[in-house]
Batch of 3 targets.
Target 1
Amino acid sequence: CHTFENSLAMSNKENPSDFRNFRMLYYEQLGLRNVDQMKALEHLLKEDPLDVDKIKTFTQQYLLPSVYRVYVWKVLLGIIPVYKESVDFVTNHRNQQFLDLKQALITMKMVSPCSHSPKTAVLAILLEHGNLSILHNTHVKHYAMKVYILDSISEITFQLTQNETDTFWIAKEIFHAQEMFLSVFAKLPYYVNYYLQVEDQRLFQHLSEIQLFKMLPYDKWFQTYFASVFAESSECLCKIWDKLIAGSCHILVFVCVSLLLTYSIQLKELNCDAALKHVNRVLPQQCGQTVVDKAIELWEQHRKELTAKLATHS
């Protein structure tokens, strides 16, 4: 993706006056002045058409205000069109598409007419993908891992939106993003080791000695975007998903490193089986906030370096 400086330069060249707030944000990063980032984001969201690249850059660089999170996610995921005049038409069409799928599920007796849960969104996605068995009123067993991933993603999304339709569309598009991320996921464990060694040499040595790195559930963590770990602290995890939805799956490295650092004292005293059980449990909310805050701190500190390393990693 473009660097913040490059995006700034391109935007200034295209329309200097409209991009004044973004320029001010850049200056704030240099410590030159204080700027209201909320107003800067509001300025970007008022543009017509919306500039998705600018919004991505903002989301990667700054914390996204929770009041705008669902809207920004839908813009970045292509659920909401960039032209304001098309929003109502597209939204109505998408709502009807989900309702048609839900009605089919009701007819199949897989959900009730009164259902209001993330499970409905998961089943609708599976139905659309042709992964449901009409004869057995269940999903095809071959897709068990897919169902687990969708369940995890949809649960976090539903906690945020409290809306089946939004959950369906957001979870569906986040899941589809894995097609872009899967080739990167395979490289991330190497950098978990690298940055953990940078942050805590003693912890890294102990986990290496007990061979924990070979046992960590990287596939589950990365493919669910840590939803399975943050089931009780979804609001915290959304700050990580902001970066993911903006196209930066590299932050998952630092979520993993932060998780291990948070349990550092305990892990240094445990064997492999006990350590694996310890890191594989659901995080309580307060602990989840600690992990996310540290992950974002590490992300901001090492993001450019990691991006460069991954670009040359074969």
Target 2
Amino acid sequence: MASFIVGVEGGSTTTICSVFRSDGTKVSEVEGKPTNPWTNGFEAAAKLLKTEITQAANAGGVQLSDISCVGLALSGVEDEQCSRDMEKELRREFKDTVKNFTVVNDTLGGIYTLGDSGGVGLISGTGSNCLLVNPDGRQHQCGGWGHMIDDSGSAYWIASMAIKTVIKHRDGFEMAPFPVESVEETAFTFFGINNWKQILPVMYTNFSKSKIASFCKELAELAGTGEELSRWIFRRAGEQLGRHVAALEPHISTELRDRPGGIPIVCIGRVFVSWNFLQDGFLEVLGCGGHAPMFKDFSMHKLRETPSLGAAFLGAKAAKQPFQYDFSKTSDVFFRWKDFGLEKPDKTLMAELQCSDGLGE
């Protein structure tokens, strides 16, 4: 009897496949190649996913025929037609071995890893995206268009912003607000070049979005030394991420706004490790600390589990399969903001807010 549930988180850089029992116990988990259907192609993405799901099943000693359903939260899946097309390709690949597939946007995997009561999912990894799910299931999205249109606030955006800022400064086209020498030297070392003309093959002929995005880590380390230009770029990235959330504000339900602990914002992606550099720009866009803040209360969550858990939950729900999990233990609040207005804040709450400022280790 089929009794295992698979959850897949397919990002722009890696794919995580997790196998669960119906009681929520994780049997196995493997990491594989990116499976965005638009960058890989739908057929190629389905073939990759079959390989990676099979590897995860083998790692847990599970037969494919024992898998009752698969939930997949994939980057690039932005509408119903895309979901159906991907599900069709998966059924073709797996034939009759596995029949139940549910494909959704990767941001949904993060939101449902927090639970099934709604929230805001904010992705800033290789790319960026922001999705609102209200408690009644209504959804609204901002972003997720990819780097050719807009990946504002992502690792790729930060890296390319640094490159463009220095090049424009050297060209005399637009002067940088701070000295460019440290960022320039870091870029030359990372990309193995001696001048900016040599960046052209990296950006065009041998283009790799994930390779360019990985330069963001070097910039974060530079910002950690106090270097001003890299810190300015991260602040700008924080503004961009804040604008994603601000765009969804008109659609957030009263029920979600009034939730104890504030509106939950699930933060997904390595860029949030640099929250201390993003924070000021993010809060400024949302009007925090001003006379008219956009939100009265919100909390930012770092997941303990990968979004493959949320994908598994959605897959089981669609297939009407039992899946039990204690969602109260799937995240930690790393930052909370609350507008006290004219009220004097409670001392206990103030202590909680101070302790939750920063991602920590």
Target 3
Amino acid sequence: MDKDGERYVECKGTRYALMTLPHFRKFRDLALSSDSAWKTHYSDTVLKVESKPPGDGSTNLNIIRATRIMKNVPPGVLYNQLHDAQYRATWDTNMLEGYNIVQLDKHNDIGYYAVKFPWPLSNRDFCNMRSWMEFTNGEYIIFNHSEPHPDCPVKKGFVRARSILTGFYIRPISGERGTQLVYVSHSDPCGSIPHSVINFAMTKGARMILDNCEKYSERYPAYVAKMYPADHVYPWRTPKMNWDSPYLYPEDVPPNTEPATEHQQPEAGGSGGEKGEGNERSGEEKAVPFLSSNAGLLGTSLPLAPVAPYRITDLLSVQQYRSIMQDAMNTVDRSFLREGRVPTTKEYIVRLKYMVEGIRRTTVDV
């Protein structure tokens, strides 16, 4: 971390600035801003589409914002659906190809996405850094921006497009089961398309994007129940962050200082809904040692391993080592949770040893 609070990681000779809590606050502020520059293009009881020029005058492409009320979609279901590339491939007819290139940390990755454009336009593709975080008040954010990567070269037959800032701000509707989704898009398809045409098309296209988002979120629980086992672990789920935290990530929070809670995986049916809907395991617990003094046998709630605190003086290699060990410990914890028993110290250490050895044999430097 440098003096201004940024955090960086190196990948194949490129230094990337990771998106941390201050960046998520900035995205939330944009999603909720009410300045007079916003122009309304469409509004009804469940949808509002707006646009405004960027404040810095860097481009003639407008920022598009669409706000949608989804009464039958819990926030957690929407969040999981937006992350699930396997599910997206079943319904997104415009997606030509999409895959993850590298995981930078628990909240940032770089991926490739190719999209079909209507004739006679060339198809577009993106190389984006995607960032995500979930919060203790039930809110979630996913956003992306374009970044280069050696394993994501420009492909023949595609125009490399650019995401300046595109993402989703998800929050529960007070007293209801549903969700308010704010979709923000500031993208440049590049090529020779006039900016005035892009601005017009994006204000019209935002409605279709959110229609599909709601439609396929409502169908997602049935897909999960059919395709995933009852103990399926969503790889994008992380501890929850307090918006007012002085830390950059929930994993940085020392144990028992603030509620950076470990996400509880859904029961069979896997809708990923919120607490109190009857489709998640009970509650969110603070991270405390797995082998705690009050751990009992079957029926006892067994929390996962604590998150090691982040220190400003740590080298990047130390941060990476801590992250690897945290993942290994949580994997071992979950294995005993699935078995429904408390291990002996020897059993735990032996299983952790095999896990670390497996990581050592398979890890490739990024």
